[in-house]
Design brief:
The chain is mainly beta and 420 residues long. It has three helices and 35 strands. It is globular, with a radius of gyration of 29 Å.
């Protein structure tokens, strides 16, 4: 009887176990009312996404979104919708573009991921990357592009779209060598135009954009001044500048050329001020700022004196900052030197394939002969910015003897060097 009871209990146990292992129908937790999220690609530390490809390779990427069953993904390049779906596989001309990925649910809820797409040239392609400040040109003036392999270029194309389907005009090349190209800026309305390089066989290569201004423009030098010192403002079409105004002080004693305005800065207090410029005919000079082209800009009086302004991306010996001994002569021993820099984000890449900045971040301050003023060091998130050091008698003697003060390193963009 005990045996029968044992088998009865065993049979009941097995029944419960088998019943517990029966496969259930999955329960889908997604809803069209969910707030959409982009899970991949991941953001970098600066909250952006940075994608780099090298021609002729296409831009290939994909996203993971939720709720996936109720979400459509849109890809925008320079604010133009170029693709729909979770995957993209497209070719783009060489250049740097704004990138936006948007996820929209069936109920209209949306989220975005922003960043940039950098398309780099093949080694043998003609190439002319836009400088950090952009290309700001005035009609009926001469302009020069810098780059590589430019002897191949026979024409320039300006267009309203990145693929040159809506061409505005073609421009004959006035002069050319491998590293530079000169052309006459055509008379066009204000606005941004895609710039393309065309070779003798008709192949077209990307070269970022230009911005046309039907007015004189100031590009640099205006954002800070030193009272009672020479002040040089650079730009385009500045030969007719008649006056510079800082707050309520108007300066008419100046020397204006096509590309510079030179004057003695007024005696104003430390702090922020406004600056504006007028031409002989009363028209405004436009200042190119982060906010766009404006008739009145900000200028700052600092207790520091500027020795050098960038930007300059450090590539050890290939691309380093150099301040000649003659310019360093004004810096007394005991002064504090400030180096303003930017850490390039992890994964950022150089212009040509193989130039990578994501390995490490270092700075080396030295003479032109690579004699250390102090040991090179790793730049971390805790490193002071600006980085400062005291310019000693020994440092000054070395710089005087060895031609220049120089800053080298890797993974950094040097923006400005000052002293106080």
């Amino acid at each position: 009887m005990k045996t029968n009871k044992f088998w009865l209990v065993a049979a009941l146990t097995a029944t419960f176990v088998l019943a517990g292992c029966e496969k259930e129908t999955p329960f889908d937790t997604q809803s069209q009312d969910d707030q959409p999220r982009i899970l991949v690609p991941y953001e970098t530390k600066d909250g952006q996404i940075h994608s780099t490809v090298y021609n002729p390779a296409p831009y290939v990427d994909s996203v993971i979104v939720t709720p996936s069953a109720y979400t459509t993904v849109y890809w925008y390049v320079d604010k133009v919708l170029v693709n729909t779906g979770t995957k993209i596989n497209m070719n783009f001309p060489t250049g740097t573009y704004d990138l936006l990925i948007e996820a929209v649910t069936t109920t209209g809820k949306r989220t975005t991921r922003t960043g940039d797409l950098s398309v780099r040239p093949a080694d043998t392609d003609p190439a002319s990357p836009a400088p950090a400040a952009g290309r700001h040109l005035v009609p009926n003036t001469s302009a020069t592009l810098s780059g590589a392999n430019l002897t191949q270029v026979k024409k320039l194309i300006l267009s309203r779209d990145m693929y040159s389907e809506d061409t505005v005009c073609t421009i004959a090349v006035s002069t050319t060598d491998d590293a530079s190209l000169t052309f006459n800026v055509p008379a066009l309305p204000d606005g941004k135009y895609y710039l393309r390089l065309q070779d003798a066989e008709g192949h077209i290569y990307g070269a970022d954009v230009i911005e046309i201004h039907n007015a004189s423009v100031a590009l640099s030098g205006f954002s800070e001044l030193t009272p009672n010192k020479e002040w040089v403002i650079t730009g385009v079409d500045l030969a007719n500048v008649a006056s510079v105004k800082v707050d309520e002080i108007t300066i008419t004693e100046l020397v204006a050329t096509e590309t510079t305005v030179t004057l003695t800065a007024p005696d104003v207090a430390v702090g922020e001020h406004t600056v504006s410029m007028k031409n002989n005919d009363g028209s405004d000079v436009l200042f190119i700022t982060e906010e766009g082209a404006v008739a009145q800009a900000k200028t700052v009086v600092s207790e520091e004196t500027t020795l050098w302004t960038g930007p300059n991306y450090l590539l050890w010996n290939e691309n380093r900052v150099r301040i000649e001994s003659s310019d360093m002569a004004q810096v007394p021993a005991g002064a504090v030197i400030f180096i303003y820099y930017e850490k390039l984000p992890a994964g950022h890449e150089g212009y040509y394939e193989g130039d990578k900045y994501n390995e490490y971040w270092k700075m080396k301050v030295m003479t032109a002969w690579w004699t250390d003023l102090f040991p090179e060091f790793e730049v971390t998130d805790e490193t002071a910015n600006p980085y400062s050091f005291t310019y000693t008698e020994d440092m000054k003697a070395k710089v005087d003897e060895q031609n220049a003060l120089s800053v080298a390193g890797w993974g950094l963009n040097i923006n400005k060097i000052t002293y106080k």
